[in-house]
Amino acid sequence: MALTSRPRAIVVEAAVVLALFGLAFAVSLAAMRQFREAGVQPFFYQSNFEPAVMMACGRGFGIAASPPQELAEFLQVKRDAFDCALLPDSTSTRPLTSAANANWYYLYGASAGVWGLTGVSWTALDVLVSLMSAVSAVMLFGLFRTVAGPAVSVVFALLLVLSPANLTRLLSLRDYSKAPFVLAAIWILAVLLLRPLSRARMLALAGLYGAVVGFGYGFRTDLALMVPFGALMVALFPPGALRANWLRNGLAAGVLLFTFAVVAAPVIGGLKLGGCQYHFSLLGLTTPLTQELRLTSSIYRFGDQLTDEFIEVKAADFASRILDVPVPAQCSAEYDAATGQLYTTMATTFPADLVVRAYASVLMILRVGLAVPEMMQPVPPFPASAVASAGYAIVNRVTSLLAPAGPLLVMVAIGIAWAQSARLGLALSIFVLFLGGYPAIRFEERHWFHLRFLPWWAALVVIAQVLPAARRAWTQPAFVRGALGVAGLLFALAGALGAARVIQAHSVEVLVGEYLAAPTEAVASVIERGSFVRVDWHPQDYGVSPQHWGSDLLSVSVEPALCGAAPPAVRVTYQADGPRHDLSTTLDLPISSGNGAPTRLFIPVFWKGLGDQTNLKFDGLEVVGGPGSCLGPISKVSARAVLPLWIHLQADADWSGQPLYQSMKLPRLLSRQP
């Protein structure tokens, strides 16, 4: 019997999806092979994959009690393959001691599954990450399909999957692994919010969402943020009046939470070992990522080093000085408690900065996401041909010109949603703000590359509305609803930021007052080489032997009259056993021209060592662009627990008249330059 038009269309679309999956997988695998042949080594924290090896070798989930040398070499990527026969029969597993192991339960399981078929090797995992790329392609197709036809959806999905921004991310299996799960979860939510469904189908999809996010949580803990987001959207925004369907919606949200808890149970159980989530959140507050968001700093800075070592010494200081507990091991449960309280203190002191960081993240993703970059070094061009390179260059040139329109396209799409209904307008507004804003927690492209579809999806919404059939539906009331919805959204965002800034201005004023009033004791120093001031610093050691930990908050007086005509900079220097431990940084000093009063500069300084080895220790201050005599007396805050937050802070005569919050560089954000 011949197929009717509807089943035929389903069969054709299924064939398109399979072809898209196969093409994305083949291209991704070919790219990985070419990268390896060019000498580019994938990096995804392979040293943590011992549990995956043990699972693949039939030894269960754990780490070897006495691992052979060959396993150590494999984990250090000194060899590509490992033979399970090298594990002695007497080798047993012992419980995990690191949350970094326990929280990757499903990532290890997936890797072990591949190795069970291919043998244990790093090259074999190229298949796993290529499968993830293929699934991402299908999920992108599904998302575009909600607003466009199959042909256009295939083109847009391929454009993003074949983009160098996607292909280069394949080199990090761990970071890439979040993409298919996040995209699948977003697609499921889109279906739940856009299509009227029976109660049974709605509950099934809500359960599927929870299962997808729960499984993805065992790959990357970023997926935890999708749980409350999904529950909120399911509870409030499915089709149908909320008053009449609140029980259905609430039940769906409950199913979502339940299935997540069940699927994620092995991972959640590992949280007792710690998780390091707040460690990564604190890294997101550092100066490099503030600059990545195109934000201007105020008179304070949390810190300038985007390194694990910096957060480790901050956590050790806070745990010992404020919580009065021993220095916790990195990523342990005690470490999570210390970093969590430190992050909470930062958030409550600087709430407006968190808000503006989220806004800046949204704008950056919507703008940068519309540009398709060329292949980035050190990754070689793929495919390795002049034609492909020329094609990427042309696409990059065209999309870079269009990139500044990304935020505008999304704003118009939100207006279109508001024109159709308040439910859709509010839902899409929350979608964009959440998905674009949460990467501000740690704004690096590897954490948000999979969200580049947002401005492309919005572009399809806008294009669909300029077609003749859609234009006929645009009545004056619909246009007014859309305009009022967008205006109301912008007003609400501005109001939230304004209120947060009022709160923060007060908290920062109090903080600066406490800094200026804190009791201090003098620290000896001597000027060397004209501009270097060596500080005779002997910190209290609060480490447990053989570990050494020390910290202090220095107060440095800068004398404007002695600094010369140009405002100097002060370089904080460290003795370090290598670049990884070097916390040296440079602080610019725009000296006030008011009454010539000294500028007070507050600098947290640290010491860390093991036995006779010093990993890092504060050494002195280098005046860049001025003489060492520019610096007046140096002291340290003597009441260590009086100030919970130790941050870089400078208070000149005019500090109270300066903005006490971070601000966006709007012209740069909306320009074509990344």
Describe the structure using short key phrases.
globular, 674 residues, 12% strand, alpha+beta
Structure description:
- This protein is of the alpha+beta class and 674 residues long.
- The protein has 27 helices and 17 strands.
- The strands form 4 sheets. Strands 6, 7, 8, 9, 10, 11, 12, 13, 14, 15 and 16 form an 11-stranded antiparallel beta sheet that branches. A two-stranded antiparallel ribbon has the order 1-3.
- Strand 11 and strand 12 form a beta hairpin.
- Helix 1 (5-37) packs parallel to helix 7 (150-161), helix 11 runs parallel beside helix 13 (242-263) and helix 12 (226-236) packs antiparallel against helix 13.
Q: How much strand content do the residues show?
A: 5-15%
**What is the share of helical residues?**
40-55%
Q: Could you list the spans in which at least 5 consecutive residues all have pLDDT below 50?
A: 669-674
Distance N to C terminus: 57 Å
Shape: globular
**How many strands?**
17
Biggest sheet features = 11 strands, antiparallel
